[in-house]
Write a structure and sequence with these properties.
By secondary structure, this protein is α/β, with parallel strands linked by helices. Helices cover about 45% and strands about 15% of the residues. It binds 4'-deoxy-4'-aminopyridoxal-5'-phosphate (PMP) and glutamic acid (GLU).
Length: about 450
């Protein structure tokens, strides 16, 4: 009798166990649905990478390049990169570095001289005290941002990103396992995040505020007072900040750049500053950017880089050193030319029918509101959104721009004015013709 009962219990518990295993298998299968095609080869792409949007700026530049290769004249306003060649003294320093044998690995986080030069420049320009160990030299500011998000985000950590935003922020946050929290700003507010909007976006999982000023894609720029008000909310909520200051030197008229870390006491300890040589010195291809951060975080970036990429190119680092420590006249010369183009673009856009554009305080982008032109037909093709508008503009008029939707702002298009005056004149004529062709 006892034996019978024991057998019954054993059977029952085995049955429960089988049910449990079956339920668990179903649950795991639901969590990890097999992806049929890819799993056949064993080379299925990870979900994180599969979910990644390709960079729209680079994709549009690729389309423009294809047309150019096919022999077409393209008015290319797609990519945000200075059209100037890198100043001669910087190229000479790179050649000298090669000849001097600086062709080996360096420390993963960069050569000491460059770190010291970056720290010195921030001290001179902004009065900020950073030790060279707090500087980590990366393969461009894009990589510096990747280091920051990867080292800062645990799964589900929220990064508040004001829209319109540069194309890579949200994707990099997702890749790092974080959650981008997009906060839409208003054209009427010059696309600037308002303190109350920031406050409303903060949840218990909020960790980082991303701030980009001067902004890609809008060219808007926060005043020191506006940054101060955002900083008050940051300090009140205990947020960290990633401040992308790559357009620091490209500021027009009366606007004045201040580094986010300086606007309130105690901010530098909770801020990662991101900057680089790409935009200020026309050095996009050299791939040198950096972070400046509290020391423990800098150590984390250094560790990450030591496993992921090792050092950025040794030769490029010596070139960047020459950029920071050599004559600065080249920066002003390029800025003066950008300022001249900005004036032209501003005046020309003002004459386009039913298009608005904010003031472009810095950077080299015009972010035009084309909302009034959507839902119309261009050369027989109906255009309902900014992506279609940009693609039709490219195919019908050979003008390359980038769709606002890629920056989280449907109804807009971005024009980079980092291209020759001649291109700007002809390209804007074509944009006008395109707009006027719509029915
Ligand atoms: N941040 C912003 C806002 C940018 O526009 C760019 C341009 N690509 C970058 C970062 C990255 O610059 P880079 O990697 O060339 O240093
Ligand atoms: N920052 C530039 C742009 O927005 C370069 C391209 C990129 O890296 O996205 O066009």
């Amino acid at each position: 009798m006892i034996v019978e009962t024991q057998r019954g219990i054993a059977e029952k518990s085995q049955e429960i166990w089988r049910h449990f295993l079956a339920a668990r298998t179903t649950m795991v299968a639901n969590l990890n649905p097999p992806r049929a095609a890819a799993s056949a080869t064993g080379l299925s792409i990870s979900r994180a990478v599969e979910a990644l949007e390709p960079s729209a700026t680079i994709a549009m530049a690729g389309k423009a390049r294809q047309l150019k290769t096919a022999g077409k004249t393209v008015y290319d306003f797609s990519l945000g990169e200075p059209d100037f060649t890198t100043p001669e003294h910087i190229c000479a320093a790179a050649a000298a570095a090669m000849k001097a044998g600086h062709t080996h690995y360096t420390a993963a986080g960069g050569i000491a001289e460059l770190k010291a030069a970056v720290a010195r420049q921030y001290k001179e320009r902004h009065g900020l005290e950073y030790a060279p160990e707090q500087v980590v030299i990366a393969n461009g500011a894009k990589h510096a941002l990747h280091n920051a998000f990867t080292a800062l985000c645990d799964p589900g950590d929220e990064v508040i990103i004001p829209a319109p935003y540069w194309v890579s922020y949200a994707e990099q946050v997702k890749l790092a396992g974080g959650k981008p929290v997009i906060v839409e700003t208003e054209e009427a507010a010059d696309f600037k995040l308002q303190p109350e909007q920031l406050r409303a976006a903060i949840t218990p999982r909020a960790k980082i505020l991303l701030i980009c000023s001067p902004s890609n894609p809008t060219g808007s720029m926060y005043s020191p007072e506006e940054l101060g008000k955002l900083a008050d909310v940051v300090l009140e909520a205990g947020l960290g900040v990633v401040a992308d200051e790559i357009y620091e030197r490209l500021v027009y008229g009366q606007n004045r750049f201040v580094s986010f870390a300086t606007v309130r006491p105690g901010l530098a300890e909770r801020t990662v500053l991101v900057n680089g040589v790409s935009k200020s010195y026309a050095m996009t291809g050299w791939r040198i950017g950096w972070t400046m951060s509290p020391a423990p975080l800098a150590k984390a970036f250094d560790n990450l880089q030591s496993q992921e990429t090792s050092n950025p190119s040794s030769i490029s680092q010596y070139a960047a050193l020459a950029a920071l420590t050599g004559p600065q006249q080249c920066v002003d010369t390029m800025l003066a030319e950008f300022a001249r183009r900005r004036e032209f673009v501003r005046a020309r856009i003002a004459r386009l029918p039913d298009v608005t554009c904010t003031q472009m305080s810095g950077a080299f982008y015009a972010f035009i509101n084309i909302g009034a032109h959507l839902g119309r037909t261009y050369g027989g093709v109906r255009v309902d959104n900014s992506a279609q508008w940009c693609l039709e503009l490219l195919s019908q008029q050979n003008v390359a721009t980038v769709m606002g939707s890629a920056f989280g702002a449907e109804g807009y298009a971005r024009l980079s004015f980092a291209t020759s005056m001649q291109n700007l004149e002809a390209g804007l004529e074509r944009i006008e013709a395109f707009l006027k062709s719509a029915t």
